[in-house]
Structures are given as structure tokens and as C-alpha cells.
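F.,

This is the one I mentioned.
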């Protein structure tokens, strides 16, 4: 299955401020594939249009659909396969079930990738394509001395080895998209 990238080569060129070199153009697609999947994994969101079928616990007659934004709900059933009526309000689905039961929900979600996501993934690709060859080879520090002049370089942990990974700031952005499911507890008197 092909990866739906969250950024394009054109986005990488925009953050680089120049066209990709021939070598970078060859490498950019797999880098964007991996960066997109890493961002999805950390954020817990697909971002692009898709459908999901999930089994969720009812809590106070409601369930929360985690993929944003919800476009439409196609089907809601109980565990026996009986179709249920529902009301949708934003991410919340109201069903006629008590709090200990589960429902299966098939719904469509996603749409246009948010600019912050697109630009962050493009910047991850830019960083990978721009890693110093010494850091890509796994060097932690590098020193050159020529006469009275010396130069010391220390490479970021995420840059060592040249692999595609999210830097700490990228992780924070991805985590900001993670859904924290609100809990609603309804007790009967």
C-alpha cells in the first residue's frame, strides 16, 4: 500500500528556499514517506481523507470519534450487528446504549492536511537531506585543525546516522495533534 505523503517535494523546496539537487530529488520521496508515517504514528491522526471502522465503549450514551474532522458516519451497530440510530455533533456520537456497552462505528474523516503538519513534515525532510556527511556517517563530533585555526562541530542526536526521524520540536508538534478523549461519566440516581 502506497503512503499518502503529508507534504510534497515542492513543500521541501519551499522550506529549502531552492530547487532540489539531483541527489536530493532521488532521496526526497522515501524520506517524505517515512516522515509522514512517523508524524501520523506520534499524532494518532491520519490527516488525509479516509474511512475507519472502530469499536468504542459507550459512556453516558456517547462515544468520541478520534479521527478529525469527522466528515460523515456511515453505520453504527452494536456487537450483535444490529444497526443503531445516532446523532452526530462534531466528534461526539450519541447512541441509545448504556455506559458498559460497545458500538462499532464506520465513519469518514480527514481532508486537507493542515499547514502546520505539511510544513513540519517538509522541514523534517529538509533536515534529513541537509545532514552533514560526517553526522550521516554516525560521527558525534568532528574537529579540523589547519595551522592556528581549528573548527569543532558537534552534531545533534537526531542527525547522527542520517536516518529520517522526528527531532524533539517535531515530536512536540505531532503530539499537539494527539486526541485526548474527554471522559463523560453519567451516573443514574
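My design for it:
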Amino acid at each position: 500500500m502506497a503512503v499518502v505523503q503529508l507534504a510534497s517535494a515542492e513543500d521541501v523546496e519551499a522550506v529549502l528556499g531552492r530547487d532540489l539537487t539531483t541527489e536530493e530529488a532521488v532521496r526526497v520521496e522515501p524520506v517524505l514517506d517515512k516522515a509522514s508515517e512517523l508524524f501520523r504514528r506520534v499524532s494518532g491522526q491520519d490527516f488525509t481523507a479516509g474511512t475507519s471502522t472502530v469499536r468504542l465503549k459507550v459512556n453516558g450514551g456517547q462515544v468520541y470519534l478520534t479521527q478529525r474532522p469527522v466528515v460523515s458516519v456511515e453505520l453504527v451497530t452494536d456487537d450483535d450487528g444490529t444497526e443503531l440510530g445516532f446523532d452526530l455533533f462534531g466528534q461526539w456520537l450519541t447512541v441509545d446504549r448504556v455506559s458498559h456497552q460497545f458500538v462499532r462505528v464506520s465513519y469518514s474523516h480527514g481532508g486537507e492536511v493542515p499547514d502546520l503538519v505539511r510544513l513540519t513534515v517538509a522541514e523534517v525532510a529538509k533536515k534529513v537531506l541537509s545532514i552533514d556527511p560526517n553526522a550521516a556517517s554516525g560521527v558525534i563530533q568532528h574537529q579540523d585543525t589547519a595551522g592556528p585555526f581549528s573548527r569543532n562541530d558537534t552534531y545533534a542526536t537526531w542527525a547522527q546516522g542520517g536516518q529520517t526521524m522526528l527531532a524533539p520540536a517535531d515530536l512536540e508538534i505531532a503530539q499537539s495533534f494527539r486526541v485526548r478523549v474527554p471522559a463523560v461519566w453519567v451516573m443514574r440516581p
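The longest strand covers residues 70-78.

Talk soon.
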